[in-house]
Amino acid sequence: MLNLFKKKTELDILRKAFGFLENDFGYNLITSETKKFYKGQNLLIYRNENAKKQIEICGGGSFFHCIIRKIENKELSDYKNHKENIGFEDLAIFDNPKYDHFDFYAGDRTGVEGVTKNTVALLKRQKEFITNTEWVDLEKVEEFKNEEFKSRFGYDRPKKTKSLKNEIKQMIHQDYEKFELIFDNSDFPFYHDDSTLEKLVYRFDNNNITIKQVDWRDYPRLLRVIENDNLILEIDASKAEKETVLEKIKTACNNVYKK
């Protein structure tokens, strides 16, 4: 009887909103939890082996995000594989190239409640995609993005540049075979706190070598190389050529490698 008066939590509300995934779309709820290290604290994970998809929904406070992941040979694709993981806004663009970004942004007027309703409606409209094995044509999504950008601003959408972190990672893999990668922030989903700052941590001879972004907003190109707790390099990649940045990081790694 006391359960009748129990206050519903944000997790309860999310679960009720997305209950149709279980009841109508053939998904199983495999995770339902509240953890502080999630940006929205509350996480629901639904899986459908027949559709070969997993849907991850994180929401709470002023945050909401949804990722749809492909299952191949019963294995989930890595988060860093952007061709086999799509965010809900890519699906929204595919659904309607003229969609309003703020309909899916919980930090503004729409709020988590509004974004939840809009996402529920989006997934229901895209039932065919959600319930079978087809995948979104991501090249078409990019075309829509380019066309919409040009119609708004009158010039071509800037092309994405190769991630400096990936080039650093490749350099270390080639030149420092004894460095063991033990942490890469791109292994985490966007809704996880550890995904925000670009960061690599290597293990070598009982030492940790960390290469990390200092800040994502005000100083997004400021990088530090740290051996255990000792700062051995700080460089602003916005004020130096890429080759210079890579060379200085290589020098810092050499100092550790030769000890």
Fold and architecture overview:
- It is globular and about 60 Å long.
- The protein is built from 8 helices and 11 strands.
- With 259 residues, it is an alpha+beta fold.
- The strands form 2 sheets. Strands 1, 2, 3, 4, 5 and 6 form a 6-stranded antiparallel β-sheet that branches. Strands 7-8-9-10-11 form a 5-stranded antiparallel β-sheet, with helices on one face.
- Helix 3 (88-95) crosses helix 6 and helix 7 packs parallel to helix 8 (242-257).
- The relative contact order is 0.09.
Describe the structure concisely.
This protein has 259 residues and is α+β, with helices and mostly antiparallel strands.
Describe how the helices and strands are arranged.
Elements: H1 10-17, H2 20-23, E1 28-34, E2 42-48, E3 53-60, E4 63-72, E5 75-76, E6 85-87, H3 88-95, H4 111-125, H5 127-131, H6 138-153, H7 164-175, E7 180-184, E8 199-204, E9 207-213, E10 222-227, E11 230-236, H8 242-257
Antiparallel strand pairs: 1-2, 2-3, 3-4, 4-5, 4-6, 7-8, 8-9, 9-10, 10-11
